[in-house]
Specification:
The chain is of the alpha/beta class. Helix 1 packs across helix 5 and helix 4 runs parallel beside helix 5. Bound molecules: D-ribose.
């Protein structure tokens, strides 16, 4: 299950992503916003990030004007590794190397076609584990303790 959320600026692109997921029978939960009325992106970033961090959703996709604000908000939730992407290379590597569990997109930055390509490739890429798993473990240590306690160089 994919958690999907946006603010007003991301609303049209979120709808395009919802259509894309529907057409491919990829299950998702649309957490809003549900209108183009101005709203605050941190609320939607938090809602989707909580759905992912709790395990209710496996991954999340967020949209705001830049993808930046909603991504920063999501990254404040423990267990979230949200990446803001404007091209597919970083999106794919964020899955393979960083085990990114959320993707944020900027509706005022990328066009719909590029955004959907990023979504497609991000969803298709798998975490490679190994040395990358050890490094993601170091990130988790920072998140939990504020420092790297063990396993660093
Ligand atoms: C809303 O105007 C805009 O600030 C928001 O969508 C986002 O770009 C913030 O990072």
């Amino acid at each position: 299950m994919i958690a999907l959320a946006s603010d007003h600026a991301g609303f049209p692109l979120k709808n395009a992503i919802a259509q894309y997921l529907t057409a491919r029978e990829i299950p998702f939960s649309d957490l809003g916003t549900h209108t183009g009325e101005r709203c605050d992106y941190p609320e939607y970033g938090l809602m989707a990030a909580t759905a992912v961090a709790s395990g209710r959703c496996e991954k999340g996709i967020l949209v705001c004007g830049t993808g930046v604000g909603i991504g920063i908000a999501a990254n404040k939730v423990k267990g979230i590794r949200c990446v803001t992407c404007t091209e597919p290379y970083s999106a794919v590597l964020s899955r393979k190397h960083n085990d990114a569990n959320m993707l944020s997109l900027g509706a005022r930055v990328v066009g719909e076609g590029l955004a959907l390509m990023i979504v497609e490739q991000w969803l298709a890429a798998d975490f490679e584990g190994g040395r990358h798993g050890q490094r993601v473990g170091l990130i988790t240590q920072i998140e939990q303790t504020g420092e790297i306690v063990s396993g660093g160089r």
